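User: I'll paste a sequence; please echo it back and then give the predicted structure.

Assistant: Echoing your sequence first, then the prediction.
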Amino acid sequence: MKTIEELKRLNELITNNKIGKAKYLWGGADVAVVKEQPKKNSNSFYPDTFFVVSEKFSFEISWMLI
């Protein structure tokens, strides 16, 4: 149940406009937060990374994932 409590805490922070900003854009587990969509590399052996694209809120999104 710790996960539910942490989600409630995060919801409260967002609701009260107390969300932070990360110092860097987060990336990991084939997911990356970016400010603009990178060009696709279809020649890669590895599967494509899932990009969360947000020009305005990329550091806030990264903060939630860190």
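The CA atoms of residues 35 and 55 lie 4 Å apart. The two ends are 20 Å apart (CA to CA).
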